[in-house]
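Follow-up to my earlier ticket, as requested here are the two runs.
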Amino acid sequence: EDPSLERHFKGHRDAVTSVDFSRAKKQLASGSMDSSLMIWSMKPQMRAYRFLGHKDAVLCVQFSPSGHLVASGSRDKTVRLWIPSVKGESTVFKAHTGTVRSVHFSSDGQSLVTASDDKTIKVWTVHRQKFLFSLSQHINWVRCARFSPDGRLIVSSSDDKTVKLWDKTSRECIHSFCEHGGFVNHVDFHPSGHCIAAGGTDSTVKLWDIRMNRLLQHYQGNSVVNSLSFHPSGNYLVTASSDSTLKILDLLEGRLLYTLHGHQGPATCVAFSRDGDLFASGGSDEQVMVWKTNFDADYSDVVKPQKYSSSVDETHGTGVEMDGGIHHKKTKTQDSVRTHEQQEEETSLANTLEHIMGQLDVLTQTVSILEQRLTLTEDKLKECLETQQKIIQNKTN
C-alpha cells in the first residue's frame, strides 16, 4: 500500500523549518520562520499550543527521548528548552555567536548537541544547560549535527561541502567525507550506528559506511535536498526537496520507491515517528503534513529493540552492508523464546523507568526556570536599589 496523507496542520505564518514527533506520537512539534514553535496534538479536535519566546526564526526543534522536553534553536543565536504543556514555559541560553541551525538530544536524554553559523558544534548538559565543549574544524556554517545511537560519535554537515565524524570522548575529528559538490544541508545516523546519510544542494543523497569510510550508495535527484530521516527499521530513507516532493528510498534495493507530492513550494523538513508508522513534513507553504507510512508490512518486528544481525542479503546486489535491519524479517533469537510474562514485566519496568526519567526532566527544567526567574528578580532589585541610591545622592547634593 502506498503512503497516504493522514492530516495537515495550519497555524504557522511563515515557512515551516523543522518537525519532530514525541516518543509516543501524542504530539508533533514544528518550528517556523515566523519565530514560533507549535505543539500539535495528534488527537482529533485538540487545540495546538503556540510557543513564543524566540526573537527570530526558529530553525530546529526536537523532543527529548522521554517526550517531556522540546529543544529549539533560532536565528536569535539562542537555544530554548520548553515543557510542552499549556503554560509553554522555557529556559533560554545563549548558545552560539551565530544562528543556531540544529539541536539534537543524545539517546539517554542527558546531552544536547547544537550546530551554528559560527562554524562550531557545541555539546551541553540538558539539565543544567551547562556548556561542555566545542568542535570547530568546519570552515563555513554548520547546518546539522547528530549524536550516534550509542552517543559515542557525532556527525556534522556544513556549507564547507564536508560531512565530519567526531569522537565525543577525544573530541577529535576522526574522518571528513568530501564527496558532496555543494552545501550539505542535513545528515543523520542509520539506526544501526554503522552508516550515515547526507543530502544537500548538489541534489544528491549519499550513504557511507563509517567503519570503512566508504561510499555505499548515491542517489542523484533533480533538486536541493533539505532534510532526510531514516525509518527505524533502517530499510528506508525519506527526503524533503526544494522541488516540493518527498522521496522514499528503498535502501535494500538501492532505488527510489515513492515520490510524494503534497506541499506547494519547497518541502523543507521531514521526520519519521519513533515507531515508523508515520512521518511528518513541513514546507515553505506554512503547512505541516502527517503521512501514514503503509509501505512495509513486516517492519513491526524489526523496530523492536534487538541486536542487529550482520548478515547481508546478497541477492539485492547493491553492496549494502548496514548491520542495521537490512533484512526482510527478523531472524529467530532467544528474544522470541522468552515467556510472555517476562516480556510484560520488562515492558512495565521500562515504562516506569521512562516515566521517572520524564518527571526528572520536567522537575529539573522547572528548577532551571525558577533559577532564571530568581536571577531576573535579583537583577531588578539591584537596579531599583541603585536607582534609589542615585536619588538619595542627588537630594543630599
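Run two:
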Amino acid sequence: MAARSVCRAGSAAGRALLWGPRPSAALLNLTRKRGAASYAQTLQNIPETQVTTLENGLRVASEESHQPTCTVGVFIEAGSRYEDAKTNGAGFFLEHMAFKGTKKRPGSAFEKEVESLGAHLNGYTSREQTAFYIKAFSKDMPKVVELLSDLVQNCALEDSQIEKERGVILQELKEMDSNLTDVTFDYLHATAYQGTALAHTVEGTTENIKRLNRADLASYVDTHFKAPRMVLAAAGGISHRELVDAAKQHFTGASFAYKAKGSVPDLPRCRFTGSEIRARDDALPLAHIALAVEGPGWADPDNVVLNVANAIIGRYDRTFGGGKNQSSRLAALAVEHKLCHRFEPFNTSYSDTGLFGFHFVSDPLSIDDMMFCAQGEWMRLCTSATESEVTRAKNYLRNAMVAQLDGTTRVCENIGSHLLHYGRRIPLEEWDARISAVDAKMVRDVCSKYIYDKCPAIAAVGPIEQLLDYNRIRSSMYWIRL
C-alpha cells in the first residue's frame, strides 16, 4: 500500500484542544447514560446508502451525513490478481504514476490543485482492488469528482516520469524486503496459490519493474479501468443527486462512453495448495511463521463465524498489559511460557477463496512450543468452544464494527469495498444480526469444516531450524478422539 500524503495531529497544544478541560461528574454521568443506550440506536440511525447505476455501468454510491467534510473515492476491480507473470507490478506502478499528473494537468499541477483545496489525496493497490480517494470540504465535492475522473481517465504516463518513478519503486522494493511480516505473507500466498495469479505480490518483481514501459501501463488502464468495474463512493456532507450529476458530467471518457460487452476479463481462478516455503536465515534474531488453511470468499456467510473464532483466539504483543490474566487462552500461555513476541490470527478473503490462519514472531528455540499451542487452540475451537468465550468474541466484533463509523474516509472505503465484494452495502444492523446469530456450536462446526484434518500452507522466514517437518505439522491438524 502506498500513500501519497500523510495527515498528522499532535503537539501539546493540539492535545489540549482535543481534550479540553476535564468535564464535571454530572456531565460524565449524563454522557454515560446517553452512551449506554446508543448502540442499538446508532445501528438504526445510520443514514441509508443510496446507489445509482449509470448507463455506462458506473455505480455511484453515497452516505449523507451532516459534516463539513466529505471523502470521495474511485474503487476499481483491478489488482495483482489480474496480472500475469510478465505484467505483475503494473497496477502498483500505475498507482505511483496516477499522482504524477494527467493530460489536462501535467507535472505537479494535479498535486497543486489538490493542495489548493486543502484536500488529502491517497490511494492503494491490493490483489483484487485499486482505489484513489480525496478528503475535502463538502462544498468542493463537484471539483473532487472532476479531479478523480481526470486521474483515472487521463493519466499522463510521461516517459520521463515513468523513469523517475521506476527508481522510486525499486527503492521501495528494497525497503519492503526488510519488513519480514510482509515478506512472510507474500511467501504464504506464493505457496498457497502456487502457479496462479494470487501467488503474485502486489508490488511485482524487480525484473518486471525494470522492464515495464508506457505501453504496458496504458494497456493495463485500457483493459481494467472500465465503468462496470468501478464504484464512485462518497461519504459526508454531500447530496447523492449532486454526486450523480457530477459523475454523469465527468466520467464520460472513452472507457466510460458505453457499457461495452466483453470488456471485462474473467477473474482468474486460483486453487489452494497445502504446501510450504522455508527461507532460513540464522543471522536474523527472530523467526516469522504463518500457517493458513483455505478460507471462504467474501460473500460466504461462514466469514462471520470465522471472525468470531479469531476473536476468541485474540492477539498478543509483549507490549500489551494484562500478563497471564488476558482473556485469550493463547495469549495467557504466551505470557506464562514466553512463547513468542507477538501473534495475531487473520482471515484474508478474496472473491472465491481466502486464507484463514495465524502469524507469530518468536525466538528460534520457542517455535515448536508456540506452534504446538497455536494448533492446539485451533483444535479446541473445533471441538470444545464455549458459549462464554463466544459471547466475549461477539462483543469484540461489535466494537470493531461500530469503529467503521469513525470518519468519512473509513465509511467511504467501506461503501466502495462492499459494492465491489458483495454487490451492495451491507448495513451494520444486518452485520449485528449475523454476529448475534453465532453460537458455540456454529463456531465448532464451521471451524471443523475449514480447519479440522485439512492440509495447511506454511511460510517461515528467519532462524527456523526448530520448525518441525511439514508432515509433523500436518499431523497436528486433528485430534485422535476415543
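The only thing I checked on run two: Residues 276-476 form a domain with the Cytochrome Bc1 Complex; Chain A, domain 1 fold (CATH 3.30.830.10). Let me know what else you need.
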